[in-house]
Write a structure and sequence with these properties.
Number of helices: 4
Subcellular location: Cytoplasm
Enzyme class: transferase
Catalytic activity: apo-[ACP] + CoA = holo-[ACP] + adenosine 3',5'-bisphosphate + H(+)
CATH class: Alpha Beta
Shape: globular
Strand order of the largest sheet: 1-5-4-3-2
Bound molecules: coenzyme A
Keywords: Cytoplasm, Fatty acid biosynthesis, Fatty acid metabolism, Lipid biosynthesis, Lipid metabolism, Magnesium, Metal-binding, Transferase
Distance between the termini: 6 Å
Number of strands: 5
CATH topology: Ribosomal Protein L22, Chain A
CATH architecture: Alpha-Beta Complex
Order of helices and strands: EHHHHEEEE
Helix content: 40-55%
Number of domains: 1
Radius of gyration: 13 Å
Main location: cytoplasm
């Protein structure tokens, strides 16, 4: 049964602005594992990766119905990829949602689906 859906789109220029303004932004949005993945990327890929993770986490918070806040922080949510690159959403360490992420030159967007069996 589908229990939640969430969709989010962000302007990459906005994420770049926030990231340039404060080094805390990236540390707030990405988990330690995601930061390690970010560090391995080429310069060009870094900002779209950060924007995509931001969109995925906001989309997840909508699917959950809480928004980002005390019940659901950016650090509670982690996107992990399988060997082929397919992402999955984890909340507090447990696999919980289906996610799809996309980016273009100007935007990153993500869709999340929550379901129970
Ligand atoms: C829920 C949240 C993700 C919405 O994102 P947003 O960028 O403000 O707005 P969006 O345009 O993407 O989405 C707005 C829609 O989200 C939906 N929405 C709002 N609260 C929601 C909730 N609790 N659950 C599900 N959907 C929600 C609404 O449908 C809203 O549209 P509407 O008001 O026209 O009905 C946002 O409130 C939030 O928690 N943001 C995190 C803020 C933050 O920490 N930002 C870091 C910047 S440094």
């Amino acid at each position: 049964m589908i229990t939640g859906i969430g969709l989010d789109i962000v302007e990459i220029s906005r994420i770049r602005r926030l990231d340039t303004k404060s080094p805390k932004f990236r540390a707030r949005v990405l988990t330690i594992n995601e930061q390690a993945e970010y560090d391995r990327l080429t310069e060009g890929r870094k900002i779209e990766f950060l924007a995509g993770r931001f969109a995925a986490k906001e989309a997840f918070s909508k699917a959950k119905g809480t928004g980002i806040g005390s019940e659901c922080s950016f650090q509670d949510i982690e996107v992990r990829k399988d060997a082929k690159g397919k992402p999955t959403i984890y909340f507090c360490g447990a696999e919980i949602g289906l996610v799809s992420i996309t980016h273009s030159k100007e935007f990153a967007a993500a869709q999340v689906l929550l379901q129970t069996i």
